[in-house]
Design goal:
Largest sheet: none
Oligomer: single chain
Number of strands: 0
Order of helices and strands: HHHHHHHHHH
Radius of gyration: 20 Å
Number of helices: 10
Length: about 180
Amino acid sequence: VEEYLMGKERLKQLVQAEDDKVEILALLHNLYSKFVEDPEVLAHLGDIYVRLGNETKAEQYYQKMYNFDPLSTASIIKYCTFMLKGNGDQSFIDILDNLQLNQNLAAEDISEISWLKANSHYRQNRFDEADVLVNRALMNDPWNISYLVLKAASLTKHQASQLGEECFDRGLAQLLSES
């Protein structure tokens, strides 16, 4: 147990300092070899492989993390965020739909789940639903740049669909040229 705690403390220091990724990866693989079912180690492995540009390897670790801890809100959010940013696979939305937003979740978790769902609706051109969900996220964190960007994009696309793309694009171009 002591070795595990020392390894986790060292990992925390390395991650916070954004030190050498090779050292972090070596430490993570050492921890993983001894504690294969630790969702936190698996999440960190996924994160480091994303930063190294190896999406396939990252997905393997995120999938394992989720499989070992499918009821953890942190695991669900981490896994679904990766799936959203990754290959565009929308299967993660089923996972989020099974989460009850009123089951004593922290406000920031509700915001992240709402943002993930809103993003999924946005990608499916369901702008009204996206807007409702992103508003829920913004209630808890009104200055979150990711939420604000999605809100602006959703409103823009919604307006464009109502006015017609061509008309909207001309109006937007005119506004931009005047400023």
